[in-house]
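agent> Task received from the user: take the single chain below, predict its 3D structure, and emit structure tokens. No templates, no multimer pairing.
agent> Plan: (1) validate residues, (2) run structure prediction, (3) serialize to tokens, (4) report one or two observations.
agent> Step 1 OK, no nonstandard residues flagged.
tool_call: predict_structure(input=
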Amino acid sequence: DDIQGRLLFKEKNVFLKNMLHYWYMPLCGILLTSVLNFAVVRGNEVISEVIDQLLAGQEIVFGSFLGEFAALTAIGFAAAFVAAAVSGKYGVLVSARYRQQVIQKLYRMEYQYFDEHNSASVINKVNADLNEAERFLGETLVMLAADAVAVVIYANYVRRLNAGLFLMALVCYPLVLWIANRLVRKIHSLTMTYREKSDAITSIAQDALNGILVVRSFGLEDYFQDKMHTATLALVDNEEKRARVSNTAVLIRKLIQWIPNILCAIYAVVLVMHGKLSVGELLAFILVLSKLVESFMGLPFQMVDAAGSIVSIQRVEEILRTREEGGISRGQSVSQPEEEIVLAFDNLTFGYSEAQTVLEHAQFEVHRGENVAFVGESGGGKSTIFHLLCGFYRAQKGTYRLYGRDFAEWDIDKAREQFALVSQNVFLFPASIEENIRYGRWDASGEEVVAACKEAEIHDFIESLPMKYQTIVGERGAMLSGGQRQRIAIARAILKNAPILLLDEPTSAIDEGTEKEIQRAIARVRQGRTCLTIAHRLSTIQDADWIFEVKNKKIEEVGTYEQYMETIL
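)
tool_result: status=success, residues=569
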């Protein structure tokens, strides 16, 4: 029933492995905390001995008494200070290492994960859940360790002082553990629900902001406001339940905390009356009792606090357990072979799920330097072909060869260096024009950037802007027109200088005049390259050497542009 144990000690838990990587730091913290608690215990013993000596009429040497007490205070203070510093550094190091692993994982995960999961959920896991994991390390885990150490040391002191008092102090602890376990389960469930509802709210806000043009054009403001309001009410309702459970935990903790104090105080007085406990020992016991009970009560209720953090850790671990782009080695240098057949599908079958097959036994070849076009109805699988070519998805059956080699034998990064993609939905980062173009090849010189822009017929426009190449394009390139974004994407592809050019309906969202400019730019960038084009507009494929039609999950060669026109007229 121990949720923390099941999660934190799972064999493949990356978070736990990171915690154990710096094992010496929490060990050092535990030792220092032990020194602090031993100093407190010894200080109580000193006070107890002095009081008993005074009551017995013995002479007290205050110099030796105060000297030892001052030394214990200094040792305790130093131990507490260093323990706090070590614990803080431990939390920072583990969190930084864990965060870096998550970020690296995001860039290696299969592309399909991002298709199947809402981006808002991924963002929340990377931000809010990682922050909660960091808080667990910096606060909750520290308190858990401190309470555990304190319980052991103070309980042992009370046991040595009087076994009956020790048993009396423990009388309520089984009840506390039972209540804490019930609360942990409840908090865990409510926190998981909270995270899911928080993802939903982030998703609604993100959709509304990304589609603000559609929202305002169709008067959807009230719809999205109502949707957000409903989601917010659900979140508030969940948080009210979580607050009630947390407040109940605090109240129960306070009530139970007084029971052993009262019982032990009464029992201690009885022991003093019967001469089984000295007055000095009574005072020392009272001082230690509050710390012992506080630690006793704190330990299980720290588990309640940890339950919320563990939900976040589980959500992050879900990312780290996601399959990477497997079957493809990284880091091996694969040179571009001098093969005549550049791309080939051999009896290839692919589907996004068992019930959604897109291609069945697909076959085609593309030779070096050819200009090939893919046509067919929307949703037929044309863009899927490009995703397969770039290695975003893996085929269930059949073979895909790049330059005569099975794609699985290629280093994934080296394979993608062979492609330059220009999509119909151009994505530009909210950075400068120059930076967006340099993403094609970051080490390019300024002259090469300008040359690429001239070939893409966008240089003159850039020079007309007040900030020229340093002009910020806005989120997703919102400050530019569709044609301008498209030409920047072409400039980026030119700068990359890849041998294979993939054009995914590059002129589908622009006007006829701009289309001619884009086609001139594409004609230049095609020179000396193998080019594959997806197109709905017939004007885009007039220069194609060969045309393939994607139809009924097959890829059929239909010949040249003239031959294709004969089949549709």
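agent> Step 4: summary for the user.
The longest strand covers residues 341-353.
agent> Done.
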